[in-house]
Amino acid sequence: MESRSIRAITTIASLVFVLFQPIAANAADCDRGAAVAADLFGAADDHARAQQCKNKPVYITRRGASGIERILGRARFAGCRVYKIAGSFAARMHASWNEFADDNWATIGPRQLVFETVQSGTVVNPTRRTFVSAVPLESDYAKITLTKRGGRSTAQIAVCSHGPDGDTRLEHSAVIAGDRSDGYQWSPPELEGMLDRLISVQIQPTTAARQLGYVLQVNKGPLVEPVEEEEPEPTSPPAEEPSAGGVALPGGPTPGVQLPTSPASLPGAVPSSGGSTPDASDSVRPSPAPGPAQAPATAGQCLVTTTRHFPNIKLRCGLSVRDETVRISEDFLADCPLIAGDTVNVEIDEHHKKFLITGRASGGEWCSTSYPPGYYSGPCFSERSDASTTQTVTYFHQGKRIIESVVPNTCEPARLEAGTYRIVTVTSVKKTGQGSDLEIREAGLRLEGEEMIGDVTGLLSDPIAQK
């Protein structure tokens, strides 16, 4: 009798131990969320490029040894949500979710994980319910709470996070016993390091033919903050204040990039005034302090390859196959802005590590022709095949501002008032299993007079391939 009682007590203790212990980490619990996240990050890359908001500098709130810290860093996607950028990155991601749900995820059947919102339901064994967030997180923290609301099934819970480069982590896992009372709440430790990641939650009842009712809520931590323009770039030393169309080059020339520092490397170059010309072999090293016998700068011309990140523009100089990014003042050539295909006169001051655009060398002919203000549209479409997905979007820029279309996030025309505009059309071709290729066309548009309806397709230049 005594041995039978001991066996019964041992059995009950073992059962309690099994029911209330966290389950072992299992990568398979994240598989469904990882498959959904891979598609979403592909869309996020395309949308961030189109909206020119990828890898923006931001302030990130994190907990350090000394308490809460505000750190200057870069966010792959989070900047798309905290900077004032025309169109909604989140809306585009939700639209991509809907497209994938129709085409790619029929066997997964994920539900969208919505932050700061109570989501409830009932799941019956053998069904497995998977929630996945639709937009990369713009906070470094998240807090998950799951409350039991009825049902008698034991359930396994897995919380996973997914990164843009395919890395998946099982953050928390647990078993909720079927005999837990209604109102039981599972609240694991706060998720950390979530910036630019997607989160998935999987609920799997394990008791045959029984169900579990749940209430799920996920809250974000402090959001990243945009960096004002006058703030320094992350990890960059202080830069000199540029003048006119110039930009200071922080820390000297970029390693591995041959800056055009001699007249021979620039098309249309003119001799520098006085002194000797620096040797080309010194072009990837900071110059010594200037002396009276040294030339202050070299000069020449460079091709404008894109202005879509204005006031940052890209130039291609000499025989280089890489573009140099320079920042110009917003009022530089404001009446007739630079566009791709123009050439500019440049000076490179090695002593102060400063790249100056001194003026336009060619281009700007469009400024002499004007069209009436009104509603304008450009190329805008999306198509998908088994081998690739092609998307073309057109933006109208006036200075740094992008003019919204009549119906945001669609291919409707934009209402343009009198003024000068840069038109940028971005075509993204994403091949299955590969990265995206970009083609960028630009045009200038001057509008004067009374309103009418027009189309800019015929004005766009041939694309200049981006490296």
How would you describe this protein?
It is elongated, with a radius of gyration of 29 Å. 12% of the residues lie in helices and 39% in strands. A hairpin with a 2-residue loop joins β22 (388-398) and β23. The strands form 6 sheets. The chain has a 6-stranded antiparallel beta sheet, with no helix packed on it. With 467 residues, it is mostly beta strands. The model is unreliable at 1-25 and 229-297 (pLDDT under 50). The protein has helices spanning 2-20, 31-50, 79-82, 89-103, and strands spanning 56-64, 67-75, 111-113, 118-124, 129-133, 141-151, 155-162, 168-176, 185-186, 191-192, 198-205, 211-220, 225-226, 245-248, 298-309, 312-316, 324-327, 343-349, 354-362, 374-377, 381-384, 388-398, 401-403, 414-416, 419-431, 436-447, 452-455. α2 (31-50) crosses α4 (89-103). It is built from 4 helices and 27 strands.
Topology:
Blueprint: H1 2-20, H2 31-50, E1 56-64, E2 67-75, H3 79-82, H4 89-103, E3 111-113, E4 118-124, E5 129-133, E6 141-151, E7 155-162, E8 168-176, E9 185-186, E10 191-192, E11 198-205, E12 211-220, E13 225-226, E14 245-248, E15 298-309, E16 312-316, E17 324-327, E18 343-349, E19 354-362, E20 374-377, E21 381-384, E22 388-398, E23 401-403, E24 414-416, E25 419-431, E26 436-447, E27 452-455
Parallel strand pairs: 3-5, 20-27
Antiparallel strand pairs: 1-2, 1-13, 4-12, 5-11, 6-9, 6-10, 6-12, 7-8, 7-11, 14-19, 15-16, 15-18, 16-17, 18-19, 20-24, 21-22, 22-23, 22-25, 25-26
Helix pairs in contact: 2-4
Rg over CA atoms, rounded to whole Å, is: 29 Å
- How confident is the prediction overall: mean pLDDT? 75
Residue share in β-strands: 35-45%
Please tally the β strands and state the result.
27
Please mark out the parts with pLDDT under 50 across 5 or more consecutive residues, or reply none. Answer: 1-25, 229-297
**Major β-sheet profile:** 6 strands, antiparallel
Structural class: mainly beta
- Strand order, largest beta sheet: 14-19-18-15-16-17
Discrete helix count:
4
Shape: elongated
Query: In angstroms, what separates the terminal alpha carbons?
Result: 82 Å
Helicity level, as a percent range? 10-25%
